[in-house]
């Protein structure tokens, strides 16, 4: 067969056949490769799908767990809310029951009140009827009508009131009399310190102790020359009497008396006593006292908070260092008055500086010499005016004893501060003899009543406590006893202020444990 084809054609046919076979083989190879790739992709897709299915199953399981957990929480919250609502409902039910019970109690109480009100109305009618019967019976027994009895009662009340009014008026008159006596004593003491007088020794005299009575002869000197020289130099009177180991220096001027006392003490200590040396010592002491007065005045101004005063005012103010009134130092009193006035003025919104200055200078006139006529308030005001003191302060000085009209509220404040400083406990002294006598008189008055066991005067005679026998005095009689003691004290004693009477009735029950 091949013989029919030439050699070239056979070759072509062979090539074509090879190509066809190769194409077929390549086709099948590609098909095989495609199938292999397809299988790989299918495997990969299946793997992805399987992974996706696993993940979806896991997500589904997790979602189911979360849903179950959420459902459980929701059910628990619902149960809790139901429990709370149930408890709240129970509480409301309990409150409703309480309110119903209280309402029922109120209704019962209202019913009881209505019953009581009815009973009270009935009882009031009975009382009114009984009162009318009693009034009628009283009118029949006393042979008096109600109007007549009322008139008689008013007359008795009027008499009692008149007696009480008379007692109060008598008390006020006694207080006014005592105040007048106190003021008179102050004026007399002031006059004694400004004018020569021999009436009050404790204000006008000073005692100088001596080492021995032999020193009295040296003080007197030959023919009395030493004592005359001393009296002339110091301006005082020297009293050499029988007082053991002491001489008395007498003078109305407190500064000169202080100079003389210090000079005498210095001479006695030194031992050289003759006219020339006496004059030298007195001059030295005068200079020392003058400097001391200036220093004390400046210190007082500093303590009182007052500045810028004239030197002449300081000199006069320093003289108050050696002045006393009922035992109270006048310079200390002036500083205390200034401080009290400052506090009061600050509290009332007044001028504290004016009040301080007025309080410090209000007794400046007490330091003036006796040759100046007039009261110490007017003298001090005139002196302060001449040396440039503020006009309001001048008015305070002049008016603190109402000798002229007060022109400012600070003047009233200083007057009050002056009274407070002088009247406070301990500021001024009374004699020991008068104090003991007053205390003893109070106790004697209380002990004079029947049923009194003991009595004690307290608080410097401002209160008396009376202890009574409980078997003799009952509570009502104790009240009457207090009034009777007070009346007897009013009638039989003179005293400043008020005296409190306290009656104490004590019952003691005693038993013994055996």
Notes on the protein architecture:
- The chain has 514 residues and is mainly alpha-helical.
- Among the domains are: 2-139; 305-429, Hypothetical protein af1432; 435-505, K homology (KH) domain (GMP Synthetase, Chain A, domain 3), CATH 3.30.300.
- The chain is 70% helix and 7% strand.
- The protein contains 15 helices and eight strands.
- It has helices spanning 7-142, 146-194, 201-204, 214-220, 225-234, 254-270, 275-304, 311-319, 330-348, 352-361, 376-386, 391-399, 409-423, 432-447, 475-492; strands spanning 205-209, 237-239, 246-250, 324-325, 328-329, 452-458, 463-468, 500-505.
- The strands form three sheets. A three-stranded antiparallel beta sheet has the order 1-3-2.
- The chain is elongated, with a radius of gyration of 59 Å.
- Mean pLDDT is 80; it is low at 191-202.
What general form does the structure show? elongated
Main sheet summary: 3 strands, antiparallel
| Fraction of residues in β-strands | 5-15%
Amino-to-carboxy terminus distance: 170 Å
SSE succession = HHHEHHEEHHHEEHHHHHHEEHE
Structural class: mainly alpha
| Poorly predicted tracts of residues | 191-202
Number of strands: 8
Topology, element by element:
Layout: H1 7-142, H2 146-194, H3 201-204, E1 205-209, H4 214-220, H5 225-234, E2 237-239, E3 246-250, H6 254-270, H7 275-304, H8 311-319, E4 324-325, E5 328-329, H9 330-348, H10 352-361, H11 376-386, H12 391-399, H13 409-423, H14 432-447, E6 452-458, E7 463-468, H15 475-492, E8 500-505
Parallel strand pairs: 7-8
Antiparallel strand pairs: 1-3, 2-3, 4-5, 6-7
């Amino acid at each position: 067969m091949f013989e029919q084809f030439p050699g070239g054609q056979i070759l072509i046919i062979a090539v074509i056949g090879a190509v066809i076979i190769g194409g077929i083989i390549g086709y099948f190879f590609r098909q095989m490769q495609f199938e292999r790739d397809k299988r790989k992709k299918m495997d990969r897709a299946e793997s992805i799908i399987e992974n996706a299915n696993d993940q979806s199953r896991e997500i589904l399981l997790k979602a189911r767990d979360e849903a179950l957990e959420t459902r459980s929480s929701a059910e628990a919250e619902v149960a809790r809310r139901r429990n709370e609502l149930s408890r709240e409902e129970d509480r409301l039910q309990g409150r409703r029951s309480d309110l119903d019970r209280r309402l029922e109690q109120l209704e019962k109480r209202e019913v009881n009140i209505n019953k009581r009100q009815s009973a009270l109305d009935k009882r009031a009618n009975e009382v009114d009827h009984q009162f009318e019967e009693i009034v009628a019976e009283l009118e029949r027994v006393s042979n008096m009508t109600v109007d007549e009895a009322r008139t008689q009662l008013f007359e008795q009340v009027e008499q009692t009131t008149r007696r009480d009014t008379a007692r109060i008026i008598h008390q006020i008159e006694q207080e006014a009399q005592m105040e007048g006596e106190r003021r008179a004593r102050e004026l007399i003491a002031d006059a004694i310190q400004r004018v020569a007088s021999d009436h009050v020794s404790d204000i006008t005299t000073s005692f100088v102790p001596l080492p021995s009575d032999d020193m009295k002869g040296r003080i007197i000197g030959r023919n009395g020359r030493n004592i005359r020289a001393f009296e002339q130099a110091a301006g005082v009177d020297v009293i050499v009497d029988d007082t053991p180991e002491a001489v008395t220096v007498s003078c109305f001027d407190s500064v000169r008396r202080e100079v003389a006392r210090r000079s005498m003490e210095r001479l006695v200590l030194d031992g050289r006593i003759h006219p020339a040396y006496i004059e030298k010592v007195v001059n030295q002491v005068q200079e020392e006292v003058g400097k001391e007065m200036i220093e004390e005045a400046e210190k007082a101004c500093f303590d009182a908070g007052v500045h810028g005063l004239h030197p002449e005012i300081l000199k006069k103010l320093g003289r108050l260092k050696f002045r006393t009134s009922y035992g109270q130092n006048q310079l200390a009193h002036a500083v205390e008055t200034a401080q009290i006035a400052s506090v009061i003025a600050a509290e009332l919104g007044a001028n504290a500086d004016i009040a301080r200055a007025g309080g410090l200078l209000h007794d400046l006139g007490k330091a003036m010499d006796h040759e100046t006529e007039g009261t110490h308030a007017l003298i001090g005001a005139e002196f302060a005016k001449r040396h440039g003191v503020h006009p309001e302060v001048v008015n305070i000085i002049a008016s603190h004893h109402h000798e002229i009209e007060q022109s400012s509220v600070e003047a009233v404040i200083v007057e009050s501060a002056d009274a407070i400083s002088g009247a406070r406990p301990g500021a001024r002294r009374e004699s020991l003899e008068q104090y003991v006598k007053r205390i003893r008189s109070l106790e004697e008055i209380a002990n004079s009543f029947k049923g009194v066991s003991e009595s004690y005067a307290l608080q410097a005679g401002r209160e008396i406590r009376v202890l009574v026998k409980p078997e003799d005095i009952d509570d009502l009689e104790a009240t009457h006893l207090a009034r009777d003691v007070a009346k007897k004290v009013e009638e039989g004693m003179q005293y400043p202020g008020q005296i409190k009477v306290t009656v104490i009735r004590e019952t003691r029950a005693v038993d013994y444990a055996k």
